[in-house]
Amino acid sequence: MADETVATSMPSCPECKSTNVWRDGIRHTHRNGDVQRYLCRACGKQFSETNWNCPDESEHIQRIHRKILCSLSNLPSNRQVCIAQTKGMKNLVKVEKKTEKTNAGMQQQQPFNAPISASLAELMGKTVDYSFWLHKEGYKESTILARTRLLRRLVKLEANLNDPESIKKTIADQKTWSEGRKEYAVDAYSSFLQMMGKAWEPPRFRRTHKIPFIPTETEIDQLIAALGKKMAVFLQLLKETGMRPGEAVKLKWTDLDHVGNTLRLNEPEKGSNARIFKLSNKLMAMLNDLPRTWLEIFGPFNLDTHRRNYQRQRKRIAYKLKNPRILQISFQTMRHFKGTMEYHRTKDILHVMRVLGHRNIKNTLVYTQLLPEKDDEYVVKVARTIDDAKTLLECGFDYVTDMDSIKLFRKRK
């Protein structure tokens, strides 16, 4: 009986002979059936071996340098092809030669101690390691996603993560980026260098604090009335509570108290304080009308999915109402609206700070100047019975005074 050799370790890469490889799924072949695929973390190549004892039968799949599919000429460079194939190899050689010339030109402009021949796949692999490092350091999921996406964007803009000067130039050349985005990119790369045990002299970008847009309550109510069922509830919740959209997405049905009409927020973002909100009867009725298919109130969807859905509906509603101001109403606008209305209603900055969950009062002081006093306009209502007064209070009206056996209420327009 012939001796059978059983492989107990990972194979080496046929390109660079490195053993630092990952399993990358199963490849279906007509000749050998299902074979295991591998990804080399050293050179970024993919390969699969039909028989570890016969290297000649190994099948090598090379990842071609990626480009954006904006023209027909770039289509072949964004494909993975088998080098063993002979059909179509003439065009592949042209693409490889063009890529080698481009890489050679970039290598001459990268004076740094790190290996200059690092491929795009290797740089992308470092961003994966960076996301794991942020997770181990205790960063929030939203921060990990934002910083990792920003580093990946820099890599796609042909910046070399091993060269700080390349990062500086790439960030400075982005004319469409705001100063705040550039500052955040600098912070993300600084923490990346901290993971690598290196340091740099970061460029100076200073975020410009802009005055946020505050719509009228009538515009918000018109928008909510025209939205779809679930999105209307989502926006009404943001309007009444002032919570961040990322906090609202994570809410579960168990956080809702139907007896006291309250909602608990135990997973705040950005280091904010946990809070409890008193909900109106209108919002409670809207929430109870939603189907309870998932554990989360608004389903197991991330914030980007809700935001894209909202933007499509908002564009249609703004066109239908012929009001371009509606296009400026975002999820974050609801938080600005709540903070502004609460301050002008109570004149108590500490109360607004508790409602919004801020830990630093400097973040709350911005709401004291968003709505000038001279522009205050109110809707005044009269209540002659207790039921009328109760209804007005539930609709957001504030009690002012008594006059001729009647009660006067008002609400900002």
Q: Please tell me the total number of domains.
A: 4
CATH C-level of the largest domain: Mainly Alpha
Widest sheet: strand order? Answer: 1-2-3-4-5
Which runs of at least 5 residues are low in confidence (pLDDT < 50)?
1-8, 51-96, 102-118
Instruction: Quote the distance from N terminus to C terminus.
Output: 91 Å
CATH homolog superfamily of the largest domain: Intergrase catalytic core
Number of strands: 11
**Count of individual helical segments:** 13
The CATH topology of the largest domain is: hpI Integrase, Chain A
Order of helices and strands: EEEEEHHHHHHHHEEEHHHHEHEE
Average of per-residue pLDDT values? 80
Tell me the major beta sheet. 5 strands, antiparallel
CATH architectural grouping of the largest domain:
Orthogonal Bundle
Please compute the radius of gyration using only Cα atoms. Answer: 29 Å
So what's the overall shape? elongated
Specify the helix fraction band: 40-55%
- Class derived from helix and strand content: alpha+beta
